[in-house]
Amino acid sequence: MAAVTAPGRVVEQAPLVIQAQGSFAVGGTVVRQPGTFDPARPVMPQGQTLHGDHARVFYQVPQNRRQLPLVMWHGFGQFGKTWETTADGREGYQTIFLRRGFPVYLVDQPRRAGAGRSTVAGSVSATPDDQRWFNMFRLGRWPEFFAGVQFSRDAEALNQYFRQMVPDTGPFDPQVATQAVSALFDKIGPGVLVTHSHSGGLGWTVAMMNPQVRGVVAYEPGSGFVFPSGEAPPAMPSAAGPLEAVEVAKAEFDKLTRVPIVVFYGDNIPAQPSPNPGEDNWRVRLAMARLWVEAINRHGGDATLVHLPQIGIRGNTHFPFSDLNNVQIADLMSDFLARKNLD
Amino acid sequence: MAAVTAPGRVVEQAPLVIQAQGSFAVGGTVVRQPGTFDPARPVMPQGQTLHGDHARVFYQVPQNRRQLPLVMWHGFGQFGKTWETTADGREGYQTIFLRRGFPVYLVDQPRRAGAGRSTVAGSVSATPDDQRWFNMFRLGRWPEFFAGVQFSRDAEALNQYFRQMVPDTGPFDPQVATQAVSALFDKIGPGVLVTHSHSGGLGWTVAMMNPQVRGVVAYEPGSGFVFPSGEAPPAMPSAAGPLEAVEVAKAEFDKLTRVPIVVFYGDNIPAQPSPNPGEDNWRVRLAMARLWVEAINRHGGDATLVHLPQIGIRGNTHFPFSDLNNVQIADLMSDFLARKNLD
């Protein structure tokens, strides 16, 4: 269907046939200010409400759709854009999986981007930090890219990549975030949750909250690994600080053993401690993810960890789904969905 | 193509055939912090950059496209959502005009929603103000809707409507906003600019900056009416404060006389001064728009003002393009584009 002539150049794509598309807010709350609204003084809050803390969702349903939709949830500092056009201008997961017949729902979590209406005031910093993310997202060690990294060397690609960051418009609150995404599953019914980084741990929570989550694909989950009470491993020290496991009631944990789960990690994660927090961070996260997958399976679950270099796929960053080889990465996800009867 | 059974219920829509879709950042600037980046202390800003102040754009190009794309720019407190699914769940301009063969580009202006990365720090208030917007956007006089208003009485519609507001993530700066949207026209070439409310005046600026703007459709422009030096009318007092005209050099103004322009206003705009700022605001804006259209035409331009009630179309709010009769409103826009050879 896609005729790829060279990385970053896609020509003669078949058209997308979309049965329905649109957007909506889901979840959230309403704050009410006591008093009486005075229409002559509309800037006074008395008697007014604020609808906020919802998620914003943009969805597309292809013709001849598969049954289960994919709900794609971005990570820290990101929004639905994560899954759209890649930094170097190729199709992202939004469109790749539409082509593969899946309804695709892109989430902006509460207090982020199109879901910016927060019930708690916030402040937005303008502190330069692009280089922090260049290292943390494992494009390389600024200003050098990793040899063989699956990221375009075109300057415009890095420009686009930096510009897809967005700030929080209010304090991050895991309960607010997970309730809104759970409300999305209440609205749309059964589906597969696709998470990235920060939403990885939040995604386990949503999967425990809502039985409509029928499978989870987690790209590089970064925190929130849940273990049954008494079974959490000790915190793992790293140059980025200690990574703590999270204990939950066994009955809650067991809910995660009832859905197929796959976890992917990319390349350039050091095996030994590194003084670079942007890399050492991922060393302990990958190590914790291995313990977590073992715990899920020990309790009768169905979790798989795929460390991409171990299957011969090299150079992936923290964003495998938008890397230069993202069609290959998507094929791995398609295989998982097929094997687990989620497609 | 669309079989509408009742307001808010659309069934058996033909599928959309999309040749290409995607998203990108455009325009913006880069801030550089002096010093040297220390990878061991990545939260320190020294030596780091911040890419910000761009616009975020989501676009779709239908199969068998018309030549000129439509660039849709939201108003105050809004983002690209303005043009997506309506509050009561029907298709908005994004999808309506895709069906009519136009490439559609939805903008989030700099420091808003998906373009939230600002080079200047900001603060986000959580002050309740839904009722302010209910009145200002002329749904009615809270808590009553106007009789016959083109807005669903379904409670969920109002819930969705309130939730499509988003805050600024940095100080609003008209130069930042207009430069980013002008950069979009530099990137995509000739097109038609569709503005709403706050982007109305900004849109005149972009049309003066960039000859790629080949026509302008303005829904309820709220400020920034430009007149040649020496020809600005006096400020118009209102219950919402005075509305000031803006003077520009005659040579700049003349650029607006070279493109077809249509301006639409909805219903429930009082003809006489009202103590309600949410209504009186629009009285002077409509009056100023009339003087502005006269000035454009006096100088050889081609501008039309359509006050919808005067052509028998009743009940429109500040958002005619998403009101219950938005297909009828879209037909008026299609007629304009056809008459001016912009389709």
Automatic annotation (TrEMBL), chains A, B:
Highest taxon of the source? Bacteria
Carries keyword Hydrolase? yes
Residues folding into a coiled coil are none
* Keyword Zinc annotated: no
Q: Which InterPro entries match?
A: AB_hydrolase_fold (IPR029058), Carboxylesterase_BioH (IPR050228)
Q: Which GO terms describe its molecular function?
A: hydrolase activity
* Keyword terms, alphabetized: Hydrolase
Name the chain's protein: Alpha/beta fold hydrolase
Where does this protein come from, organism-wise? Variovorax dokdonensis
Q: What is the lineage of its organism?
A: Bacteria, Pseudomonadati, Pseudomonadota, Betaproteobacteria, Burkholderiales
